[in-house]
Specification:
Elements lengths: L11 E4 L14 H12 L5 E3 L4 E8 L2 E8 L6 H12 L6 E7 L7 E5 L7 H10 L4 E6 L10 H5 L5 H9 L1 H14 L1 H8 L4
Parallel strand pairs: 1-4, 1-5, 5-7
Antiparallel strand pairs: 2-3, 3-4, 6-7
């Protein structure tokens, strides 16, 4: 991880997901769910943006302008939306915090990272192909696919069972607080707190 990434550098928070009612409650839309909860808590109104190929709003936090973004380009073309916003506002990939679902983590668990592989996540693969690998990733677990022989695409596009959905909603405030911690304290201090194992 680059030590040059500091708190003042994060200017864009992206929630990954797929547009459309049929995807609303699916595991792969966890990024949308969390960024929607964050925007709701801060009383931010989403605007459709043709320029940015998605929904976008601005959040003034501690005198900093933070852009929130939900790409509507579908998961495997997420970079089109993010790149458009970065280009317009003259921002760098290292200023992006991406909220994603993660199959390597237990349901509801979180991890903060910079760099590393995509872990089979098509949205991350697309972002890495276009932006490189300097953006930060806030990962929230959806658990390993069950049954094991199920296609990964079927699993991530499936809806959360009720018990798992409850875990996610019970921890939503913690997710918002962790994202605020990342913005306020910086990647490295936040990583030390978020990634600690109890």
């Amino acid at each position: 991880m680059s030590s040059s990434i500091q708190s003042q550098d994060i200017r864009v928070v992206v929630g990954l997901g797929n547009p459309g009612k049929q995807y609303v409650a699916t595991r792969h839309n966890l990024g949308f769910m969390i960024i929607d909860a964050l925007a709701e808590q801060e009383s931010l109104g989403w605007k459709r943006s043709l320029r940015f190929h998605g929904e976008w709003c601005q959040w003034i936090r501690n005198d900093m302008m933070i852009h929130l973004l939900k790409p509507h380009t579908f998961m495997n073309r997420s970079a089109k939306s993010v790149h458009a916003l970065l280009k317009y506002h003259k921002l760098a990939p290292s200023q992006v915090l991406c909220i994603q679902d993660d199959i390597t983590l237990e349901v509801g668990d979180t991890k903060l990272s910079v760099g590393g592989g995509a872990g089979g996540h098509n949205g991350i693969k697309d972002l890495q192909a276009v932006l490189g690998n300097e953006f930060a990733r806030y990962k929230v677990g959806i658990g390993q696919k069950q049954p094991a022989q199920m296609a990964l695409s079927d699993f991530v596009l499936g809806v959360f069972p009720e018990a798992h959905r409850q875990i996610i909603w019970d921890r939503m405030q913690a997710y918002r607080e962790q994202i605020a911690l990342i913005l306020d304290e910086g990647i490295t201090p936040a990583m030390n707190l978020i990634n600690q194992k109890i």
